[in-house]
Design brief:
five-stranded mixed β-sheet, 43% helix, single chain, alpha+beta, 3 helices
Amino acid sequence: MTTMADSTIWWLLAGAAVALELVTGTFYLLMLAVGMTAAALAAHLGASVMVQIVVAAAVGGGAVVAWHWKRSKSPKPAQANANRDVQMDIGETVHVQQWNDDATASVKYRGAQWTVVLAGHHAAPEPGLFKVKELDGNRLVVIKV
């Protein structure tokens, strides 16, 4: 009876982790697959099973921790209603001719009438140019240019 080499087992585990990552979209599984790949290389170099396991845990776990730390340091993306990549209206300008008593206005924008509200709570908005900050349902939330 032939036994499978340790390196082959590690390569199969790394491949399974990559395949599972493709199904689930969990990027951390790729980091664990890197650890399993390092263990396969350690097996090719003749390391004992215990060393292979330690290498897989250290490299894979270290990669997970490093990726998690990197993600925590990067700026969070804007919410969908304020993200220019999602809403093409973010950053566009509108001209408000007159504000209503309830601090809303109606403007013609992209060929349709839109309700405009001022971002934040400011007293007595004045007519003029405003930039779209975000969308709140079918309302444009704007800031003064």
